[in-house]
Each structure stands twice: as C-alpha cells, then as structure tokens.
Amino acid sequence: MQTILVNELRQRYGDFEAVGGISFEVGEGELFALLGTNGAGKTTTLETLEGFRNAGSGTVRVLGHDPYRERRALRPQLGIMLQEAGFFADLTVAETVDQWRRFTPSPRERDEVLGMVGLPQQTEVRTRQLSGGQKRRLDLALALLGRPRVLFLDEPTTGMDPEARHATWKIVRELVADGTTVLLTTHYLEEAEQLADRLAIMHRGRIEVAGTVADVVAGQGDRITFRVPDRVPVSDLPTLCGAVADIAVESGRAVAGYRVQGLQASLYELLRWAEHHRLELDGLQARSASLEDVFLHTAAATPEGAVR
Amino acid sequence: MNSSRLKDLVQPMSLSHVLAVARLDLTLLLRNRSVLFSVVGMPLLFGGMLFGFRGQETGGLDMALFAGTGYLAFFLVFAVFMNLVSVFTARREDLTLKRLRSGSLSDSEVFGGSLVVSGAIYLIQALLLVVVLGTALGGPWPANPLLMLAGMLAGVVVFALLAFAISGLTPNADMAQLTVVPVMFASMAGSGVMFPLEFLPGAAREAAGMLPLSPLVDIVRTGYFGQDHTVGGTQSDIGFVEAWIRCLKPFAVFALWTVVGLWSARRWFRWEPRHA
Questions:
Q1: In a domain, B9, yes or no
Q2: Domain A2-217 - what CATH class?
Q3: What residue spans define the domains of chain A?
Q4: H-type helices in chain A, by residue range?
Q5: Å from A125 to nearest chain B CA?
Q6: Looking at the predicted structure, is the pLDDT value of residue B152 above 90?
Q7: Could you read off the pLDDT of A162-219 as tens digits, one per residue?
Q8: Interface touch B99/A87, C-beta < 8 Å
Q9: Which of A125, A279, B87, B246 has the largest CB neighbor count within 10 A?
Q10: Which chain B residues contact residue A105 at CB under 8 A?
Q11: Contact at 8 Å (CB) between A200 and A209?
C-alpha cells in the first residue's frame, strides 16, 4: 500500500481550476517534494491531503484513509505544518507546546520537542515576540508532537536563516531515516535537491515533470557557454558531439551556448577546436544541469494566459 | 468546495479534548482585558443599575426584580453571543482557528470547548445575580430552578449558533462591535427584559415573543416567580408541572431558533479568512 496516493485530483475555486488533474504516489519512509511557482496548486494539493478540503474530483488516500471523510481516524497519525497558521500571541512557547500536548494523543515531552527544533532557550518567550524563523521552528515542533507517521511540510524553512535551514534539514533527514513519510513543498530548489527522494514540479495546476532529482535533471542536458571570439563568424562555431551552438547576446557580445549530454567529451572537442584555431575562449563555463534549469524551463514553457 | 464552512456541528467528541480547549479559552480570556471587561464589568454595571430601580413598579412587580429577572436572561447576550462572535472572528482572522484544526481536534471539539467556557461564565453570572436578587434586593428565591436552568442551557445553544453564523459575516474583530448590534438591540428592547410586552398591541406582542431572547425571558421569569410570565400569561401563581406546560411555547420558539441557527451557521460560518 502506498502511504500517499493521489489519482487525477482536481480542485476548483469558482471558475479557477487550482489543481487540474494530478497523480502521484509516495511510499512509506519516502520524502516527496512538490515544487512550483506561486499559485501552482501546491498548497491546495497539500490541504486536500491533510483533510481540510474535500477532493473536487479524483481520489486521494493517506494511509488508506480518505483524509476528509475519515479525518478523525487519520489525524492522530499526521503531522501538519501549514504554510501559514497563527499562534496565540499571549501564550509563551512553553504554554503553547503544553496546550498542544493536551490535544495530542501520546505526545512527546515538551523539552524533547523543543530540543529537536532548537528552541530550548525560548520557553518563556511569548509567541508574539518570536522571529519569523523561530515561529517556523515552533510550527515544526507542534507538527512533531504526536510522532506522526506522515508529515506534511508546507514551505517549512521560509524565513529561516541558512543555519536554521540546515538544522531543519537535519531534523527532516533523521525523521525520514526513522521511517516517517514526508510530503514537502518548497520554493528553495536546494532544499528539494538536498532532501527529496523524488519530486514533482507543478505549474498552473499540473505536474509537468516528476521523478528522482537525477531523473528530472537528466532530461535537461549539461551546459557549456563562452563568449564568441571577435574574429570568429558564428557560422564557423563547431558542433560538439552533435550539439549545435545557440547564440545569445549579453552586454553587446555574442555568447555561444551548447546543451550537451556529458561534459567531458564535448569540452574536449571544444578545447581542441580552440587550440587548433589559436583562440582564447573568454567566459568559458561548463556545468552540469541543475534543478534550477529544469524549474525555470518548466515555468517558462507555459506562460501566463497561454492556451494549452 | 465549501470546505472552509461548517461541516457538521454534531460529531463524536472526546471530553478530554473539549476540556483542553476550554482550558485554553479560559487562559486566553483571563489575559485579555477587553474581553474580561465585557464578561465581568458589564454584568457588574447592569447589576448596579438594579439598585436604582428599587421601589418603582412595573408590570405589577417591583421594577428591580422585574429587570433583574430580565437580566438573568440578557446576560446570555454578553457572555455567550458577543463573546463567541468576537472570539471566533478574531481567531479566524489571525489563523489560530486554522491551527486549532490542524491537529487531532475535531471541529465540534473546537466549538465545544469555547461553548463550555462561555456557557459556564453565563451560568455563574446568573447564579450571582440570583443571590443578589434574593438578598440585597429583597426578592424571593427561585420557585422552579430546574425550569430556569433548562431554559438557560437551551438559550446557550441558540445564541452560540447565532454567534457562529454572525462571526462568519463579520470581516474582522473590530467590526464585531457592530455586527452584534442588531441581535443585542432586539434582545434588549423587544424581549421584555426591562419593559413588559403587555403594553404592546396583540400582533406586535406576538412578534416580540418570537425574538430569540424572548423565550428565555419568559422561562426565567416564570421559573423565578412561580407565576405565569409567558407572553399573554396571567401572572397567577402556578405549580411545578404547570410552569413547564406554560413554557412549552417558549421552548418551541427556541427549537425554531435552533433550526434557524444551525442553518445559518452552516451557511455563513467560515474557518478561514475570505481572502485566503
């Protein structure tokens, strides 16, 4: 049984289709990341899986339950970190955790959970005085109170400084290592690269690309760029392992770019060509494809208002 | 997709969860001065006013006792109705309501905890007022406390449902001061709290009897004096059983308002801000 199952899910708000028929599965102990631009439908998908809203059409199952109709049975097994939720401003961190322990079956100890998220010094601070990153950590603490089997994290590290972000990644990795299933949305591609076993990129309510980071990036090709030397006509540029140069103009100068499969052989060909013609290649860059390339490519492919 | 609306008010509840929510509510209430004033200050103010009515007569009764028994009903509007409208509106807008729904609590437990606190505050206020009426204002002790309590509990349910509905129509916590006014004013002026409805012409009196607080005023006054104080009642002394029978119509009006309250709460209540 898949821990999370989404099949042909659609959600509408009035005339606006927020989610346009998506399907994916997440296995036990797996971390699945949903990436996408703002308004891509990530949060709507997550809130459907969390049981806040009924599926417009299609099927969603979490641990075999319909999350909306069987919320009562399912919720004690879930940890939910919403993208945005309020704290009672007059309560301290300790009071907030204590209060939530009363709502949670067999909860972790307060000190344990605050230690996990790195807030042990802030117990007597009122929640209104916490920084954005500290609030996010308290959010995470509440989501972890009930030792959830499935954890939903909606942009968990937004507002955190790099140190706190890395600390959070460490916590999430340990939870996954212990068998927790995690569904995460994020704006930070590095976060997905660091954490995700598999991911999907959503755009305008649909999943455009899905797979492991390696799968997703592989289709994209590696990239070699350099400034076209002044005395070389564009038509004289070589092909590299069959790839033809595309020319862009940056700061008034022509830049040649190649999308290639495998950097080493292509670079060797390029350097041999340059050596042969006694050329200096200014601004030579060679890099493997990144998730960012795929992401930007996906977001650019169907611009706002495009007819599909 | 009306997910942000009220799904079902009647769901299985765990008592420990309801009490945990109630404890949270009480903690927050004690730390919020303006809410605390409306819960403690307003009843004190109204209670104090009663001493100015002593010796005057209205509707064949001492005016302090007449108005005092009216307040036994009217305190419900402060403690339950206005309190719940402002609490649920503020929590919806600052997204704490959404947080309360993000864990193991069911929706009815979230409602139930707040209902227990506001209902308990009302009953304590009413009990204290009964003591003041019976001692400082020279009134009798309640003839039929069971009838009074049943009416009060029914009133708590009706006004909580109305509060959930009105909170859905209230854009923010500041506006809650305004959106409660129609119900508060209708209850104050038209339900016989301070002035007997007997002076009204027949049709207007029947209409006033249909207002949501009117049944409670009738039931509480009838139960307190052991006399028939329902709309058009004779004010003659009646026994335990007859008091219940005379109050069947007020309870029927409450039943009607329960239906209206359920319908409107289902239609208008919102868990999340409109702009989200």
A1: no
A2: alpha beta
A3: 2-217, 221-288
A4: 42-49, 71-74, 93-103, 110-117, 132-144, 162-177, 189-195, 213-218, 263-276, 291-301
A5: 15
A6: yes
A7: 988 999 999 999 999 999 999 999 988 889 999 999 999 999 999 988 999 888 887 7
A8: yes
A9: B87
A10: 104
A11: yes
Per CB-CB distance under 8 Å, the chain A contacts of B103 are 75, 80, 100, 103-104, 142, 146
Return the structure tokens found at A183.
């569904």
Highest averaged pLDDT of the listed ranges B107-121, B194-208, B219-233: B107-121
d(CA B164, CA B100): 16
- Radius of gyration (C-alpha) of chain B in whole angstroms: 19
| A262-270 own/partner pairs: CB under 8 Å, 24+ apart | A262/A222, A263/A222, A263/A224, A263/A287, A263/A288, A265/A241, A266/A222, A266/A224, A266/A240, A266/A241, A267/A224, A269/A238, A269/A240, A269/A241, A270/A224, A270/A226, A270/A238, A270/A240
Phi–psi pair at B44, nearest 5 degrees = -65, -45
Select the more confidently predicted residue: A254 or A183.
Answer: A183
pTM for the full model? 0.86
Identify the pLDDT of residue B64: 93
Q: Is the pLDDT of residue B4 over 50?
A: no
List pLDDT tens digits, range B254-273. 999 999 999 999 999 999 99
Q: What is the number of domains present in chain B?
A: 1
CATH class, range A221-288: alpha beta
What is the residue range of B233's domain? Answer: 15-268
Q: Does A32 touch chain B (CB under 8 A)?
A: no
